[in-house]
């Protein structure tokens, strides 16, 4: 209805230049109309919060989150000198180092296995991708039992081999590793699916000609599969990196950041600071740090990804 | 190309062992959900007697049905919202030419650099100030606009021949009609892929429902599961597992049905 009304307006103007300008405006307005819903929601729930977070990070707030005192960079200075936050950053980076290579390598292994043309391969593909359909909450509950110190399967297995029981989630030297194992398992399905998609888009002609030359399985893997898969691999690595920095649910369910803040990853730390301690200012300062990390990672992904993607 | 028998055997062994390891946590939970407490306490692998008591208990003691319904409503609303907004935006980027289009496209790309987790504090305040805490609107609205979905559909819309658009213009068809009657039906598979993805991720959301709900009225099943876990006694593992299994069944079915499509669709949206 709108369109009709605008169009008849345009016809009424005699001057050619004016008509052209008007038509341009109409085209612009129509385009904006289609984009408007997304733009408004992005503005309200993405760009505004971003600016607001930066703004809040310079203030102290009351319990409802209204700003009270301007403190400049104090929140940042206090944050970086706080042993708890430094511990949180250290844990976050360790967690990333544990989970990203783990997820990508196991995912790659499974994808290569599941890419063979064997009978019943569809069943295995379904199983390997299954963890994508298992929510963080449900996955955490499953693992919570496996980690259980007395009844859990992991300690039962250790017990069977005569090894002493481990406090998987309660021992400070194990907790972060345990949470990492759970996370690798949770993210495996998604990473597997993307890698399998990448493998299937490799031209089978390449393998056939290598076959004629009598190339071995591992030679083909190293010289054809991995290089041809590199754009997908690259994408998967950056996505896992970003996901790892945003981990929250399994921490909340499994350890609540403990023991001794060992698993207090950055998003959990923000959550605690804002919604349990009501320190919105310092929480925002931490959120700014998280934002900068993600920004850099995404930027690298775009810049490097652009170059790597187009060679096929 | 024929695979030698020896290699075939090795592959099957690796496939089976990996499948078992990947599926073990879910399988154990599934078994436990049918076990009596004695079976669980004595560390049985397979239930000696199959019981449905755990499932009855979890529905009796918890408003699980209510949580499930909430999750369904929230996931479907987000899915529909994402499909509508992404397809409209993708249409504008493919079929409409106007000043500022490239700039707006850049704006869409830049949204991918802002993690939701980093903007969760102001978003919570916004929803609270709009009085949308404990409402479906508060749970779903922040997720409607989606750069990934827009890119995925844009990729697909680009494959629709430009001649169709020209023909439609000659026939006097406006943008909105062309979008509804030609573009959307032609992009059906991509829309389904995006829909499945949207439903899966919404169903599995954790942080936002935790913040945006304070009571049972709209609480989703994921947060319900967290409550179940913290409230149940440690020796009630069967009940907790029954809850966990109920939560994953809808998404697992959806994933099994849509796995092939999802795999192609995700690769397209992500890589190209």
UniProtKB/TrEMBL annotation, chain A:
Its main location: membrane. Residues 89-301 form the ABC transmembrane type-1 domain. It is found in: Cell membrane. Pfam families: BPD_transp_1. It is a multi-pass membrane protein. InterPro entries: ABC_transporter_permease, MetI-like, MetI-like_sf. The chain crosses the membrane at residues 28-48, 93-114, 126-146, 153-170, 176-199, 226-245, 283-302. PROSITE patterns: ABC_TM1 (PS50928). GO terms for cellular component: plasma membrane. The keyword Transmembrane applies. Keywords: Cell membrane, Membrane, Transmembrane, Transmembrane helix, Transport. GO terms for biological process: transmembrane transport. The keyword Ligase does not apply. Signal peptide: none annotated. Belongs to the binding-protein-dependent transport system permease family. This is Sugar ABC transporter permease.
From TrEMBL, chain B:
GO terms for cellular component: plasma membrane. Residues 68-258 form the ABC transmembrane type-1 domain. GO terms for biological process: transmembrane transport. Gene3D superfamilies: MetI-like. InterPro entries: MetI-like (IPR000515), MetI-like_sf (IPR035906). It comes from the Bacteria. The keyword Transmembrane helix applies. Belongs to the binding-protein-dependent transport system permease family. The chain crosses the membrane at residues 9-35, 72-96, 103-124, 136-157, 178-200, 237-257. It comes from Cerasibacillus terrae. It is a multi-pass membrane protein. CDD domains: TM_PBP2. Its main location: membrane. Pfam families: BPD_transp_1 (PF00528). Keywords: Cell membrane, Membrane, Transmembrane, Transmembrane helix, Transport. PANTHER family: ABC TRANSPORTER PERMEASE PROTEIN MG189-RELATED-RELATED, SN-GLYCEROL-3-PHOSPHATE TRANSPORT SYSTEM PERMEASE PROTEIN UGPE. It is found in: Cell membrane. The keyword Signal does not apply. This is Carbohydrate ABC transporter permease.
């Amino acid at each position: 209805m709108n369109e009709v009304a605008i169009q008849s307006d345009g016809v009424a103007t005699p001057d050619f230049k004016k008509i052209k300008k008007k038509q341009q405006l109409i085209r612009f307005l129509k385009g904006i109309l289609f984009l408007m819903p997304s733009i408004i929601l992005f503005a309200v729930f993405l760009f505004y919060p971003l600016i607001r977070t930066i703004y809040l990070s310079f203030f102290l707030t009351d319990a409802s989150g209204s700003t009270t005192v301007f403190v400049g960079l104090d929140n940042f200075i206090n944050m970086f000198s706080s042993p708890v936050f430094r511990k949180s950053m250290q844990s976050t980076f360790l967690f990333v180092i544990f989970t990203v290579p783990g997820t990508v390598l196991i995912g790659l292994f499974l994808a290569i296995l599941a890419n063979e043309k064997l009978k019943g391969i569809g069943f295995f593909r379904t199983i390997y991708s299954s963890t994508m359909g298992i929510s963080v909450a449900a996955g955490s509950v499953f693992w919570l039992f496996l980690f259980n110190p007395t009844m859990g399967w992991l300690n039962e297995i250790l017990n069977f081999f005569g090894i002493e029981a481990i406090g998987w989630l309660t021992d400070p030297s194990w907790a972060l590793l345990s949470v990492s194992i759970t996370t690798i398992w949770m993210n495996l399905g998604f990473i597997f699916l993307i890698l399998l998609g990448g493998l299937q888009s490799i031209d089978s002609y390449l393998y056939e000609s290598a076959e004629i030359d009598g190339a071995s399985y591992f030679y083909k893997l190293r010289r054809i599969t991995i290089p041809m898969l590199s754009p997908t691999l690259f994408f998967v690595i950056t996505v896992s990196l970003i996901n790892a920095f945003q981990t929250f649910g399994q921490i909340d369910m499994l350890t609540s950041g403990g023991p001794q803040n060992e698993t207090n990853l950055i998003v959990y730390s923000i959550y605690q600071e804002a919604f349990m301690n009501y320190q919105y200012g310092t929480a925002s300062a931490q959120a700014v740090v998280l934002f900068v990390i993600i920004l850099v990672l995404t930027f690298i992904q775009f810049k490097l990804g652009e170059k790597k993607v187009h060679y096929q | 190309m024929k695979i030698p028998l020896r290699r075939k055997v090795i592959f099957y062994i690796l496939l089976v062992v990996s499948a078992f390891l990947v599926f073990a946590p879910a399988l154990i939970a599934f078994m436990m959900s049918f076990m009596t407490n004695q079976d669980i306490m004595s560390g049985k692998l397979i239930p000696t007697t199959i019981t449905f008591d755990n499932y009855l208990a979890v529905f009796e003691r918890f408003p699980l049905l209510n949580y499930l319904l909430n999750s369904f409503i929230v996931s479907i609303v987000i899915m529909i919202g994402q499909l509508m907004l992404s397809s409209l935006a993708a249409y504008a980027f493919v079929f409409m030419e106007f000043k500022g289009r490239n700039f707006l496209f850049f704006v869409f790309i830049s949204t991918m650099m802002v993690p939701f987790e980093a903007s969760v504090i102001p978003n919570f305040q916004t929803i609270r100030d709009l009085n949308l805490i404990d409402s479906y609107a508060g749970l779903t609205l922040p997720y409607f606009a989606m750069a990934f979905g827009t890119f995925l559909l844009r990729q697909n819309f680009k494959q629709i021949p430009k001649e169709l658009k020209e023909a439609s213009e000659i026939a006097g068809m406006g943008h909105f009609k062309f979008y509804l009657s030609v573009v959307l039906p032609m992009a059906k598979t991509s829309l389904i892929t995006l829909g499945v993805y949207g439903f899966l991720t919404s169903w599995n959301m954790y942080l936002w429902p935790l913040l945006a709900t304070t009571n049972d009225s709209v609480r989703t099943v994921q947060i319900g599961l967290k409550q179940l876990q913290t409230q149940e006694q440690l020796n009630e593992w069967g009940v907790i597992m029954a809850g966990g299994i109920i939560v994953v069944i809808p998404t697992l079915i959806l994933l099994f049905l849509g796995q092939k499509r999802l795999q192609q669709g995700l690769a397209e949206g992500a890589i190209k």
